[in-house]
Specification:
18% of the residues lie in helices and 26% in strands. The protein is of the alpha/beta class. The chain has one domain: Ribonuclease Z/Hydroxyacylglutathione hydrolase-like (Metallo-beta-lactamase, Chain A, 4-Layer Sandwich), CATH 3.60.15.10. It has a seven-stranded mixed beta sheet with strand order 6-5-4-3-2-1-14. A seven-stranded mixed beta sheet has the order 7-8-9-10-11-12-13, covered by helices on one side. The protein is globular and about 50 Å long.
């Protein structure tokens, strides 16, 4: 079994209940996205290396990179590697980590994603493009006997181009920022509504679906209307900060 911790489950900005996108497989030293919840990684570090996979460079997914000096303080982590699209890594280095904004160099190696990544003692990580303003990536992590996928910042549909990339995974963590009633705003901003995400999970024959990148303005998880739509794909739940998932 592998453990995944959802450290941050909000989109766009944090609120009193949720920080922005950051997931961690602590026993493997793998982090998916580095939003405002990145500071929580420190409490779960138990490996000698840290591999951070970035879906894209929007601030709610990368601002936590500036927390790394504290995250790593007093820890024996070598190396720390940032994986992402080449142009996104360049933008992060040029803008977020510009000396005028963040004056200390991060102790990280940059690795542009050009194909699958084989991690020592860990999964095979593949990436695939998603439709979102500025472009973003989804990830599939595969072991010989199981797999998970992480899909954030995209507009889902039952026949999405990435359907085959997530087919049959044991766990799909997928963004769901809006209820169905806000489909026009979802399309404009490049995010997903509930029913298309559920229809996609059903079409891809995934075993379990956890919704993340939730709207920070929502007063509660009832905002999505999940209970009324659960019949489309029953094996679904809303993620929350600190949620631990074994698969």
């Amino acid at each position: 079994m592998t453990k995944l911790i959802l450290l941050g489950t909000a989109g766009f900005h944090p609120n009193e209940r949720r920080h922005t996108a950051c997931l961690m497989l602590p026993e493997l030293g793998i982090v998916l996205d580095a939003g405002t919840a990145m500071f929580r990684v420190r409490d779960h570090l138990c490996t000698s290396r840290l591999d951070i996979f970035l879906s894209h460079a929007h601030l709610d997914h990368v601002v936590g990179l500036t927390f790394l000096l504290d995250v790593l303080y007093g820890k024996q982590i070598d190396p720390v590697t940032l994986y992402g699209a080449a142009e996104k890594l360049a933008a992060i280095d040029r803008h977020l980590l510009a000396k005028e904004i963040f004056p200390v160099a991060l102790p990280c190696n940059y690795e542009a994603l050009t194909g699958p990544v084989e991690l020592p003692g860990g999964p095979r990580v593949t990436h695939f493009p998603l439709s979102h303003p500025g472009g973003t990536l989804g990830f599939r992590l595969s072991w010989p006997d199981r797999a998970m996928a992480y899909v954030t910042d995209t507009t889902a549909s039952a026949d999405a181009e990435y359907l085959e990339q997530i087919r049959g995974v044991d766990l799909l963590v997928h963004e769901c920022n809006f209820p169905d009633s806000m489909s026009e705003l979802a399309a404009v901003t490049g995010h997903s509504c509930l029913t298309p995400v559920l229809e996609l999970a059903r079409a891809a024959n995934v075993k379990r679906l956890v919704l993340t990148h939730l709207n920070p303005l929502a007063d509660s998880d009832e905002f999505l209307g999940l209970e009324q739509a659960r019949h489309i794909f029953p094996a679904v739940e809303t993620g929350w900060d600190g949620m631990e998932i074994e698969f």
